[in-house]
Design a protein that fits this description.
Length: 664
């Protein structure tokens, strides 16, 4: 416990240090800003360098006709991928000049680097030896604050947040905006807030939304003291000012009387903080030591209290009425297992027994003394959220008994260890089979139909057939386990929530789950219901029948996601193109079309249009039941621009550059 406390104290000191550093240093400086990786450098005059030079030259010339573009040059292992984005309020002429400058700067600022990004005043440019096109990346985001400060008014922050929340929705989900909306809001008779957001157009809608949500968090944690701020990210851009920067106006920085009172200048702030920092740090360390020694003297630690409270809650549950209406006997309850038993079963959690890594910890295979195989879920010690998920999973799954739900055999709470012991699934999880080119061949059409129907029955049990109404909130391929006969069993109930009989939906500020499987009303507004699970089921169904992942799908020129691709084929009448090629011999075209139809009904944008799981199970069973026409799915990605902009030796969207020379 003492070690953890000291670790927390160090973490708090680091956060204090970086917060102060942000306040002192995050001001608009003269661009360019750069990020250079520390990966192995390329050799001068190598194939990689030649490909990079050719690609930089091509992108700079292309910027005069397009404000965003991506391409690649050469062949592996010397292939170079690059992308630029000019901010959409500038002209093509300015875009060309900006990318030309960025091309020169990136070579000078990051010499011999295989991965680099540079941000100019009006554009950004990046390249890498790995394909990043269509991949969300908000690592290394750079928040910048205007040099002139404004008091950290609650009213001002609220206005900025609301404005950016609206723009984020427009950028991600309004197809008319081309991932670039602007906002203009009068704050008073003399002051107006100007805002804009922009995503790279290779992103899917939900990735654009994620990037901008992260940008808002980055800005709110450091830069609301400025009268303007911007966030530089590889995948998106975010800015607000109190002058019309995207209309060509300059920041005159004239002295005005603001409704939101101005603060001190950054220079004064540095002086004040420079004087106070030593005192604050000394006081913090003194207080930390006092708290630490007081905790050492306690007879009952907070951890012990939490442990005891959890066990008391578990004992109360053991006498309650469970899902099937009968009291569960002690023999049927998951039993408390000794840590030593689990350590022996897993060979002390050896790497050779590790089955996988989850959001809240690792999973290991174990063999008990009687020879039975188990799967042990070990919570990460650093995850505070994981403790909540652990309690939820134990207390909830005890009350659930269904052949399509994984069975909990035992658990352990000892010291810092929190462990769940499940029945072992020899065929691992569905994603292992579904997204592996070799193993996917083992899933013929009949097997996939059985898996889909099993998942549907398990979800119906959670929603309607048990005495509880449960929303899983994280249904996905990796959370569907397969037994030795390939029967599906839904797992991971750490994020599940119980609904009362008169409750249809709930709201949360803490969004959990997996992007791509999350329904739009949940991802955007925190609203979840059984219809949220129906959406996830629909995405999973389409993955199963197509053998393709939900996101990052770029084989079609006009569909950057699986939902967009399926919707496009549906409207074109080319449904058969979605069929997994592995199913060509075992799949009935009419049956495939029906399952595709059901999947599209489940992923409709409006939750009220989606069927219930009971309706889904009925539709899957009956070949003669009527199916309504589906509306547009949620999160349909934007079509790529400039499809006609092809050049000799280039292919659209993911281009291969073999040679570039002057054109006649």
């Amino acid at each position: 416990m003492g070690h953890n406390f000291l670790s927390d104290a160090k973490t708090m000191l680091l956060l204090l240090y970086f917060s102060i550093a942000n306040l002192l240093n995050l001001a608009y400086a003269d661009p360019p800003y750069s990020f250079c990786s520390n990966t192995s450098p390329f050799v001068a005059n190598s194939s990689f360098q030649n490909n990079l030079k050719s690609l930089m030259s091509y992108l700079a010339s292309n910027a005069s006709v397009s404000n965003q573009y991506h391409a690649s040059a050469g062949n592996d292992p010397d292939r170079v991928y690059a992308q630029y984005m000019c901010y959409s309020y500038i002209t093509n002429e300015k875009c060309s000049a900006c990318i030309d400058a960025a091309s020169q700067d990136i070579m000078q600022l990051c010499p011999n680097n295989r991965n680099a990004t540079v941000w100019e005043e009006l554009c950004q440019l990046r390249f890498s030896n790995k394909n990043f096109i269509g991949q969300l990346d908000f690592s290394g985001n750079i928040p910048l604050a205007n040099r002139e400060t404004i008091e950290n008014s609650v009213q001002f922050i609220s206005v900025v947040n609301e404005n950016f929340s609206n723009l984020t929705k427009k950028a991600a989900f309004d197809h008319t905006q081309n991932m670039y909306p602007t906002g203009k809001l009068a704050l008073s008779d003399i002051d107006t807030l100007y805002t804009l957001v922009q995503c790279t157009t290779d992103l899917s809608s939900h990735d654009c939304n994620t990037c901008l949500q992260v940008a808002i968090q980055n800005i709110s944690s450091c830069c609301y003291f400025g009268r303007g701020a911007r966030l530089l990210s590889r995948s998106c851009y975010f800015r607000f000012e109190l002058y019309a920067f995207y209309e060509g106006a300059a920041d005159t920085r004239t002295q005005k009387v603001y409704n939101f009172p101005r603060g001190k200048t950054l220079t004064i702030l540095k002086i004040v903080l420079g004087t106070c920092i030593p005192t604050v740090v000394l006081a913090f360390l003194t207080a930390s030591c006092i708290i630490y020694f007081r905790r050492l003297s306690r007879k009952e630690t907070d951890e012990e209290k939490s442990h005891l409270a959890f066990l008391q809650e578990l004992r109360k549950s053991s006498g309650s009425t469970f899902a099937e209406g009968n009291k569960v006997s002690s023999e049927e309850l998951p039993w408390m297992m000794d840590l030593s038993v689990i350590r022996a079963a897993t060979d002390n959690f050896s790497v050779s027994n590790k089955l996988g890594q989850g959001g809240f910890g690792s999973v290991y295979k174990g063999i008990l003394s009687d020879g039975s195989e188990v799967a042990v879920k070990r919570l990460s010690r650093s995850s505070e959220q994981g403790v909540k998920e652990f309690k939820t999973e134990v207390l909830l799954i005890m009350k659930l008994q269904h052949k399509n739900l994984v069975r909990l055999l035992g658990f352990c709470v000892e010291g810092e260890e929190k462990l769940l012991v499940y029945e072992f699934m020899p065929n691992s999880s569905l994603d292992v089979f579904l997204f592996d080119p070799t193993k996917r061949a083992e899933l013929d059409w009949s097997s996939r139909i059985d898996i889909i129907n099993g998942i549907a029955k398990g979800m119906l049990y959670l929603h309607e057939d048990s005495r509880l109404r449960i929303v899983h909130r994280d249904l996905k391929a990796s959370n569907v386990l397969l037994d030795n006969e390939m029967n599906p069993k839904i797992s991971d109930f750490g994020m599940a929530r119980i609904f009362s009989s008169n409750e249809d939906e709930a709201n949360t500020a803490r969004i959990v789950g997996t992007y791509g499987y999350m329904a739009p009303e949940y991802a955007m507004e925190g609203l979840y219901s059984t219809k949220s699970d129906v959406f996830s089921f629909g995405v999973l169904l389409l993955e199963i029948i197509s053998g393709r992942k939900k996101a990052g799908y770029h084989q079609s020129k006009c569909a950057p996601s699986l939902l967009a691709y399926a919707w496009q084929l549906w409207n074109e009448g080319n449904k058969a193109e979605l069929i997994d090629p592995m199913l060509s011999d075992s799949c009935n075209a009419d049956e495939f079309s029906r399952y595709m139809h059901i999947g599209l009904l489940c992923v409709q944008e409006d939750a009220s249009d989606r069927p219930t799981m009971s309706s889904v199970v009925l539709m899957l069973k009956s070949q003669n039941s009527f199916l309504p026409q589906p509306e547009r799915p949620a999160f349909v990605g934007r079509f790529m621009d400039n499809l006609e902009a092809t050049v000799s030796n280039f292919s659209v969207n993911e281009m291969t550059l073999s040679d570039v020379g002057p054109r006649g």
